[in-house]
Structure formats: C-alpha cells, structure tokens
Amino acid sequence: EDKVVQSPLSLVVHEGDTVTLNCSYEVTNFRSLLWYKQEKKAPTFLFMLTSSGIEKKSGRLSSILDKKELFSILNITATQTGDSAVYLCAVEASSGNQFYFGTGTSLTVIP
Amino acid sequence: ETGVTQTPRHLVMGMTNKKSLKCEQHLGHNAMYWYKQSAKKPLELMFVYNFKEQTENNSVPSRFSPECPNSSHLFLHLHTLQPEDSALYLCASSLRQGSDYGYTFGSGTRLTVV
C-alpha cells in the first residue's frame, strides 16, 4: 500500500530554534516529492524534489531527498512566529499522476 | 489571494440538498484538481482535469460530480451527501498536469453536511 508518513505530528519551538521535519514514503513508481506550507486553508508550494542528495534552498528553508532510504527532510533555521503552520509532504507517482499526502506536521513557533 | 478563487467559502447543506462548489483561476493554467481534506487525514485527490478532459477519478462516490466547462473553471456538484462528506474541499491548478509546474491552491470551501 502506497503511503507517506510525516513526523513529528506536531512540534512547538521557540523563535530562533532550528527544526527538522521528516517525511518517509513507500510509493510505487516514485516521480517527485513536494513540500507545502499550509496556513489557515490554502497550501503554498515550497519545494519539489526529484533527485537524491541535491539540496534545495529558499531563504531559511531547505530540503533534501534520499531516494535510497525513501525519505526527505525539511529544515527551517532561525524560526520565526510566521513559520507557524502545517507542513505537508506529498509524493507523486508517475502512474496516473497520483498524489499521496502525509497528514502533515503542525509547527508552532512561540516568541 | 493565490489566483485560485473558490466559492462559497462555507456551505452547510442537508443530506437531500443539491449544491455546487465553484473554482476559478485566470493564471493561464490548463490543469485543475479537486482535493478533499478531512480532519486528521491526509489530503485526498478526488478529480483531475487536464485541458478540460477528466484524467483522474480517484474512486470518488457518484454523489460528487465534477464539471470543467473550460480551463479556467471547475465545479463540483454535490447531491445526497452524507455527514462523513463534511470536510474542506480544495481546488488547485497547475500549468499542465504533473508536479513539474507547481500547484496553486485555492482557500477551500468548508462543507458541513447536516
């Protein structure tokens, strides 16, 4: 059964801390892995990863994929209260363009 | 605003009602998607349209009926729903079907079936 598992389910940190969010997957015919940030309602796209070992960075956020061990991590450095959100991981399978989403990690950054 | 507009924002309907959710984008995207987000469950893909053609129906019950009259508009027609259908329904679009182009999500319609 194809699945995506994110951990931890929730996380509370202080401003300035660094956090690492995990996403592991078992998906047949893997095509890509995507990270989204969901505040209130609409998820916003963060990264798409297709190749192992190549880090993608955007400001304080970075992500990397390990296709051998079937996982990805999302790092956020120097966290701010505006980083508080649910972070969703999704894996796209090449067969039928099916997406598998994890349940998300709820991050709360307190001042 | 993300560029993908969903209406209504909230909807309460009885089990015998018929209603429709609307999604509109003017981003020049050719693929549009319906997702269901239930509490404490992963986001579920429901339907995919690529250039107005339905390319994905993820085993969705027939009480949900999608319609895509053109690349800018997507509807989800609802009839004889069940209380367990209460959820947030998200619409998304992308340039073409597939993640290479990224996705833009709407803010969703919060549906409550009573």
Please name the defining characteristics of this protein.
heterodimer, A: about 110 residues, mainly beta, five-stranded antiparallel beta sheet, 11 strands, globular, B: about 110 residues, seven-stranded mixed beta sheet, four-stranded antiparallel beta sheet, about 0% helix
Overview of this protein structure:
The complex is a heterodimer of chains A (111) and B (114). By secondary structure, chain A is an all-beta fold. Helix content of chain A is 0%, strand content 60%. Chain A is built from no helices and eleven strands. Chain A has strands at 3-7, 10-14, 19-26, 30-38, 43-49, 56-58, 61-66, 71-76, 85-93, 99-101, 105-110. In chain A, the strands form two sheets. In chain A, strands 2, 4, 5, 9, 10 and 11 form a six-stranded mixed β-sheet that branches. In chain A, strand 7 (61-66) and strand 8 (71-76) form a beta hairpin. Chain A is globular. Helix content of chain B is 0%, strand content 56%. Chain A binds chain B through residues 4, 31-32, 34, 40-45, 48, 88, 90, 92, 96-104, and chain B through 2, 4, 40-45, 48, 55-56, 58, 88, 90, 97-100, 102-108.
Main sheet attributes: strand count, strand direction, barrel closure of chain B: 7 strands, mixed
- Described by its quaternary structure, the protein is heterodimer
Question: Largest interface: which pair?
Answer: A-B, 23 and 25 residues
Low-confidence stretches of chain A: none
Number of strands of chain B: 11
Count, helices of chain B = 0
SSE-based structural type of chain B = mainly beta
Q: How big a fraction of the residues of chain A is strand?
A: over 45%
Tally of strands of chain A: 11
Quote the distance from N terminus to C terminus of chain B: 30 Å
Order of SSEs of chain B, N→C? EEEEEEEEEEE
Structural class of chain A: mainly beta
Largest sheet of chain A: 6 strands, mixed
* Helicity level of chain B: under 10%
Q: Give start-end ranges of low-pLDDT stretches of chain B.
A: none
The rough form of chain A would be described as globular
C-alpha Rg of chain A (nearest Å): 13 Å
